[in-house]
Amino acid sequence: MAAKRTRSHVLVAAVVSLLIAGAWPTVADADHSWSDFHWTRGANPFTVIVGDNLNSPWTDYLATAVSDWSQHPEVLEISLEKGQTASPECVPVEGTVQACHGEYGRNGWLGLASVWNINGHIAQGILQMNDTYFNEPAYNTPEWRNLVVCQELAHTFGLGHQDETQGNPNLGSCMDYSSNPAGPPSNEHPNQHDWDQLMQIYEHLDPALITMATPGAMERIELSELTVDLEQLRFPEAGGVAEVPSLGAGDVELSTFLILADEDILARGAATPEATPSA
Ligand SMILES: [Zn+2]
Ligand SMILES: [Zn+2]
């Protein structure tokens, strides 16, 4: 098989404009760079609200992912609630993560996680699953659905990837790129390393920032009006990184992770090489 793209999962980051009138500190804490953005909280553990805007079968996969990421309540608690937006639009809701799906087209991505953060602190997030690909036999499997929901949900907590090479052996984590999520080992769920990472990210508290997040300040931010421009999230050029055109300047950063659909896997159909008995 020809050499494959190894970075099938790319990062897109955009800085979007906001008029917040100095409501937030303008100098980002060095410890809070975009790559370890996290939810602001005054105590641990804390609860992330996840809104379910899904239909069957996605709603079951979301429940599985929420259960997976609730295994260490001393770090993170998740409240799975009725969705506050709708699929496929997925308008973000401040202070929550909203999960959506839809036939977003053959635009290259299987799953998408977007996080709006203010000086590295997450204000809201969304995850979206692209049914255009999940309706195809190659991706319409429990293993692919589990991996994508598990990974995109975790991005909205501020978790990154363990490994970004698609063809190497699985690490047993949904935060590991894979061309065969079933494994073994399976890449459908978190592993201990993910928890170690989360514990590291959430070691410190943000009581000062909690105090600053007055309702008035948050209203002026109008985060819900800032939406991901899906038209900009098509297959990136070689190099794996696409830039969304800047919408202006401000203190809010919109960061988006994509899992790209792989044309080789699509062409393969439902059977993976590991699952196909040799004749
Ligand atoms: Zn912090
Ligand atoms: Zn990812």
Structure description:
This protein has helices spanning 58-68, 131-134, 142-155, 192-201, 207-212, 215-221, 263-268, and strands spanning 9-16, 38-39, 46-52, 76-82, 96-102, 109-118, 121-130, 242-243, 252-260. It has a single domain (29-268), classed as Collagenase (Catalytic Domain) (3-Layer(aba) Sandwich). It is an alpha/beta fold. Helix 1 (58-68) crosses helix 3. Helix 1 (58-68) links the parallel strand 3 and strand 4. Bound molecules: zinc ion (2 copies). One zinc ion is lined by residues 32, 38, 121, 204, 206.
SSE order and pairing:
Layout: E1 9-16, E2 38-39, E3 46-52, H1 58-68, E4 76-82, E5 96-102, E6 109-118, E7 121-130, H2 131-134, H3 142-155, H4 192-201, H5 207-212, H6 215-221, E8 242-243, E9 252-260, H7 263-268
Parallel strand pairs: 1-8, 2-7, 3-4, 3-5, 5-7
Antiparallel strand pairs: 1-9, 6-7, 6-9
The protein binds zinc ion (2 copies).
One zinc ion is lined by residues 9, 151, 155, 161, 257, 259.
The total strand number stands at 9
Helix content: 10-25%
Global structural class: alpha/beta
Q: What is the ordering of alpha helices and beta strands?
A: EEEHEEEEHHHHHEEH
Largest sheet: 9 strands, mixed
Descriptive labels:
279 residues; disordered C terminus; binds zinc ion; globular; disordered N terminus; alpha/beta; 7 helices; Collagenase (Catalytic Domain)
